[in-house]
Design a protein that fits this description.
extended; 222 residues; two-stranded antiparallel sheet; mainly alpha
């Protein structure tokens, strides 16, 4: 099994052969399994909110055919909605403040509120059609996207400026003119501060590497 590791004298070739053999053993010994997680209870649902929701259901049943009670039910729903929104704000603000990665926590909350927390394999795009070509190579797909977004500004500028002309009846096709036409407002000046090698090292050290895997593709959580 390990003969391929020592079949070459090149260090890089030997390491790659070792890593391939190691990963084959690892993945065969620890196959991936799909498990169903029990959904967690929303932290903002307090005992008072749960009691109020139960009372709301009782009011809904009792308000049928009773105009006065129906008005009371509508007012009760508005008050309960405002209480729930305030409870969500307090809970989410507390989570963001206590989080070590506020940006990630914020996006997790957004995904949860929009119902986009389940990331399945069905969400992965395997093929895209560009013109009359169906492309399944991820590298070529990335190249097509790069070409599209790098050329879209020029195309839009050309389409916009084709409708206007200068005093000499010449079309202005510069990107600066296109931006000025699209954003009719002033922008504040900003200055890029120079970064040193030490600054880059500090930024890298500040990143959370708890769940990141290395060259061996094995997560620290395994």
């Amino acid at each position: 099994m390990w003969d391929t590791t020592f079949s070459s004298e090149d260090v890089n070739t030997m390491f790659n052969a070792f890593l391939d053999t190691y990963l084959k053993i690892f993945y065969s010994s620890f196959p991936k399994k799909v498990i169903q997680l029990t959904p967690k209870r929303n932290d903002w649902i307090t005992l008072g909110i749960r009691t109020s929701c139960n009372h709301k259901r009782e009011l809904y049943v009792a308000s049928k055919g009773n105009p006065k009670l129906s008005d009371h039910y509508k007012k009760y729903c508005k008050i309960l909605s405002s209480v729930i929104n305030e409870a969500k704000k307090l809970t989410y603000n507390s989570k963001i403040k206590k989080s070590l990665i506020p940006n990630k926590t914020t996006w997790d909350i957004v995904k949860m509120e929009t119902g986009k927390t389940n990331n399945t394999m069905n969400d992965i795009i395997e093929k895209l059609q560009f013109g009359d070509k169906l492309v399944d190579d991820y590298t070529k797909i990335a190249e097509f996207f790069n070409q599209h977004f790098t050329s879209i500004a020029k195309v839009n500028a050309a389409n916009t400026n084709s409708k206007t002309s200068s005093a000499n009846n010449r079309y202005i096709t510069t990107l600066t003119h296109y931006l000025l036409q699209s954003f009719n407002c002033t922008f504040s000046n900003f200055k890029l501060m120079p970064l040193s090698t030490k600054d880059i090292r500090n930024i890298i050290k500040s990143l959370n590497t708890k769940n990141l895997h290395g060259y061996d593709e094995i997560s620290p959580n395994c």
